[in-house]
Description:
The complex is a heterodimer. By secondary structure, chain A is mostly beta strands. Chain A has strands at 4-7, 10-13, 19-25, 31-38, 42-51, 54-57, 64-66, 76-78, 87-94, 106-107, 111-115. Chain A contains no helices and 11 strands. The N and C termini of chain A lie far apart (37 Å). In chain A, 39% of the residues are buried. Chain B is an all-beta fold. Chain B is built from no helices and 11 strands. In chain B, strand 7 and strand 8 (71-76) form a beta hairpin. The interface between A and B is medium-sized, with 29 and 29 residues.
Amino acid sequence: DAEITQSPRHKITETGRQVTLACHQTWNHNNMFWYRQDLGHGLRLIHYSYGVHDTNKGEVSDGYSVSRSNTEDLPLTLESAASSQTSVYFCASSESRGLAGEETQYFGPGTRLLVL
Amino acid sequence: SQQGEEDPQALSIQEGENATMNCSYKTSINNLQWYRQNSGRGLVHLILIRSNEREKHSGRLRVTLDTSKKSSSLLITASRAADTASYFCATATGGGNKLTFGTGTQLKVEL
Lengths: 116, 111
């Protein structure tokens, strides 16, 4: 069965370190998204991609970067981790069907990141 | 800023009762979706309602949309303990495939 996976599931790092969170989907979806979830804020969009070599900034992109070298993967990099980036990170993917915004997003299980 | 705001933030009911959650948003939308999140898990899509639709049903779920008031409601009928989860509305605006999520309603269904 197709799925979307994230690794690691839990990560503890120190302030200033570079961290990369992996996201891999086997749905063959063109669209991929990274969100962070914090209490009181719901899910906020960090970066998204509509296809290979396409990346776009979301609502809270400062301090994060992504790259899309193939359809299956969209790794999220924290260039220099800060305590404010302690959060739960979710990756999602959706199929491009030509109907703006009607695509269902499929979510990964999340990565809990603690920045000390 | 969040496009959608859910109300109430938390809701506790008895099994068998109906649960109603509301979502308000700020700008014109193409459609509105509802997602569910069990504790410690990713979100799962429940239902989508288009901007030209007023009501939609799926099993025990009923969603309404009032574009004049920029609001939507999700009704879960005959709730079960397994419905305990957080529920989020998400709106799609303009072009592209982005969704903007609300802050969620935590539903607890007690036996």
